[in-house]
Amino acid sequence: MDSEQLREYAHQMVDFIADYYKNIENHPVLSQVQPGYLRELLPETAPIHPEALEDVLSDVQSKIFPGVTHWQSPNFFAYYPSNSSIAGFLGEMLSAGINMVGFSWITSPAATELEMIVLDWLAKALNLPDDFLSTGLGGGVIQGTASEAVLVVLLAARDKVLRSIGKDALGKLVVYSSDQTHSALQKACQIAGIHPENCRVLKTDSCDDYALSPKALSEAITHDLSVGLVPFFLCATVGTTSSTAVDPLLALAKIAKDNGIWLHVDAAYAGSSCICPEFRHYLDGVEEADSFNMNAHKWFLTNFDCSALWVKDRSALILSLSTNPEFLKNKASERNLVVDYKDWQIPLGRRFRSLKLWMVLRLYGLENLQAYIRNHIKLAGLFEELVNQDSRFEIVAPRKFSLVCFRLLHQQDDDSANKVNHDLLDAVNATGRIYISHTVLSNKYTLRFAVGAPLTEEKHVVDAWKILQDEASTLLRSL
Amino acid sequence: MDSEQLREYAHQMVDFIADYYKNIENHPVLSQVQPGYLRELLPETAPIHPEALEDVLSDVQSKIFPGVTHWQSPNFFAYYPSNSSIAGFLGEMLSAGINMVGFSWITSPAATELEMIVLDWLAKALNLPDDFLSTGLGGGVIQGTASEAVLVVLLAARDKVLRSIGKDALGKLVVYSSDQTHSALQKACQIAGIHPENCRVLKTDSCDDYALSPKALSEAITHDLSVGLVPFFLCATVGTTSSTAVDPLLALAKIAKDNGIWLHVDAAYAGSSCICPEFRHYLDGVEEADSFNMNAHKWFLTNFDCSALWVKDRSALILSLSTNPEFLKNKASERNLVVDYKDWQIPLGRRFRSLKLWMVLRLYGLENLQAYIRNHIKLAGLFEELVNQDSRFEIVAPRKFSLVCFRLLHQQDDDSANKVNHDLLDAVNATGRIYISHTVLSNKYTLRFAVGAPLTEEKHVVDAWKILQDEASTLLRSL
């Protein structure tokens, strides 16, 4: 680790990466390689002797890039976005340069304190209730992903109720969500040992725009209580993965509160939009939630990973996740003067992730971040309009944010209609010119067009629609 | 995300980071700030308007750095090392630049395939059994930390046994480890719902060099079986955190096998040394283990985080951790042609971490990596010699790798001796010139001197010893 060699090589890498962005549209968005392609291109063992950086970079270009699905391409419209930005990238560089492991306050006080401060900033920008600020009994923490966020709060809620009714009652605990809730909740339940038959996946409907029905929730709770089960956790979503459905937080929160249920709000994707006053109403009711999560690494210009979680009662997290081995004891921790984030998360070690979020907030400012969100929502609105103008297509679910759910109409039976849309998806993605993904809503195979890559401009949306129309025409002719 | 602005700003950041390394010895190693220091230096809310990069970097220098504990300083001897290197740093940069989310093969085939290949490379360099290679039924995966590694295999083992005896038997499952096992196991047990009274923490002893006793294990298993409990998981350690104790894998593996117990080997720190033939014998017996873990981010020049986990039966992991939501379905996965690493880990999303490990292996080569390890072990040997030459000190546990456990002798009672060593630790760390940490062995407060920062040279070790001697002299005079 010679600082001058670092300087020389890292400058080379900067140019390599800047060139990557400059030419990103020359790559197929969705990698077109076949499974196992890379093993044929690389040796079977690690080299004994050192190799040159030039050779490695040349291999990245010729062997790695063909296998990359380019999430930063302006033509990436699949899943939800995973933003990279100059500020986010610089933050990652700095964090990797300092390369400290911030499990306890003492192992780098700035890492813990900056995280507390920046999550307070973000909480204020989202107009979250003061209970979520680090200055009270709650606070924010950066998790790797929304999966880890929902897992740690599920564990906190599980242990809280088991402390009062006894740990042998695990088999009685019931978790509530909708059939639109992200699979991360199911995984968290598997990990936490919640019995699968006690995971209530409440059915949603197109007439409710796929939102969780408070009535269905109430009924399920009443039934569960009547058979001696223990309702303890509800996951509500603001902006579901399939269709950006928004669960009615106010009504759900009331039911949760009446029944002593931990309410977690998953706004992994749509949370970012709530820094704009005109979208903040989607969070109304979050005041009554026990925990709230949004992914800054999705649609908030912060490189992956950076999932922001806030809780009202940090002691519940700490009771579930803390250990106190001798080799980590230190004065500041023992005197309870500090936050040790190791006790708020699954892993022990943690990176300095607050740096990148801090740099995003400072280098762009809230005004530009709002403009960024609004522009993507406008572009999605444009795409929706284009779909509406072509009578061969239909919009499948109402658009609220930057995702459009649509499909090709087909006069045959449901199965054929689904197959046509599946074929259209494959055909479009095989062009390598755009990448979109799909879902199924009310048994309808549905195409998802998610705007959100930082490089996406109006022309990319217009071109994407042209590609979709052309592929649809070809497909319909072949039937 | 303009590529030319990225280029300009990132070049600035490279110089900032290279300068940081150049001047790293000018900072106190252990941050000397007081709890809450940063809140007074930063505004209460995020800025509305954008700020300049210069201002942010100036704040990093004046406000963040004083709160950083400099893990990359050549004078960092605390805990275990967390290596940064040019190759590791470049790999982080590239990964942050591509910024893809590799949960499924299709979302970037190169990310999954490079990870499989590079972990096969590392398995071969460690001479792990072929069962751990991805070409068979097992394979390697990069986890964030050793905590996550032990958690996922504990879950796999838990669910495997519960599938055969029924999920209501959770309260009967017993986990075995020693009192030297890392606290990550305790945390994993808390998460997995293993009852605390079924976590057997077997006592170790100085006469066994703090290694887990096969006899004690056998006896515990026999007793547990006799009362109807179900032994199912054993965590053995090669290189414990307190003192680098090595559990006798061969004997333990036999007992585990005879009782159908999942054997996990945690070599988070010492595993790196086993790429040297002369240290490989510490892993003898790993052939019979079900899973094996070593942290490339500790002592293998790969920036945090990069914890390498291998399993023999990947299907056990997948059965515990997979979910299959509609919005992630794709041809390659449905045809079972590919590995989807989302089903081998807690989170859904994952970074392109194999890049940095690949770059470390290629830019240094195994020969240099071996020389790197040997040099640190030699330096630790030198430190041990220096301690031995000063009759005021004693070595507390035998040195096997690059950690020296030692303490100041004190003629008074045990409590006073412990207090003197505690005071010595505080005094030394308060100088800001070196940072060491501690543990307790057989009730003795013990100082830990872990060599392993890439910048550490002989002069740093010699100087560190001088500081320790001087502070000890001052302390002893004051008594």
UniProtKB/TrEMBL annotation, chains A, B:
GO BP of this protein: amino acid metabolic process; carboxylic acid metabolic process
Cellular component aspect of the GO annotation: cytoplasm
Metal-binding recorded as keyword: no
InterPro entries found in the cross-reference section: Aromatic_deC, PyrdxlP-dep_de-COase, PyrdxlP-dep_Trfase, PyrdxlP-dep_Trfase_major, PyrdxlP-dep_Trfase_small, Pyridoxal-P_BS
Gene3D superfamilies: Aspartate Aminotransferase, domain 1, dopa decarboxylase, N-terminal domain, Type I PLP-dependent aspartate aminotransferase-like (Major domain)
A GO MF term: pyridoxal phosphate binding
N6-(pyridoxal phosphate)lysine: modified positions: 298
Keywords: Decarboxylase, Lyase, Pyridoxal phosphate
Swiss-Prot/TrEMBL cofactor(s): pyridoxal 5'-phosphate
Family of this protein: Belongs to the group II decarboxylase family.
PANTHER family: GROUP II PYRIDOXAL-5-PHOSPHATE DECARBOXYLASE, MIP05841P
Descriptive protein name: OLC1v1006908C3
Species this protein is from: Oldenlandia corymbosa var. corymbosa
